[in-house]
Amino acid sequence: PAADQEVFAAEMERTFIAIKPDGVQRGAEDCLELGFKLVGIKVVVPSKDFAQKHYHDLKERPFFNGSCDFLSSGPVIAMVWEGEGVIRYGRKLIGATDRQKSEHGTIRGDLAVVVGRNIIHGSNGPVTAKDEINLWFKPQELVSYTTNAEKWIYGDN
Ligand code: GDP
Question: According to the 3-state scheme, what is the secondary structure of the chain?
Answer without folding.
Answer: CHHHHCCCCCCEEEEEEEECHHHHHCCCCCCCCCCCEEEEEEEECCCHHHHHHHCHHHCCCCCHHHHHHHHCCCCEEEEEEEEECHHHHHHHHHCCCCHHHCCCCCHHHHHCCECCECCEEECCCHHHHHHHHHHHCCHHHCCCCCCCCHHHHHCCC
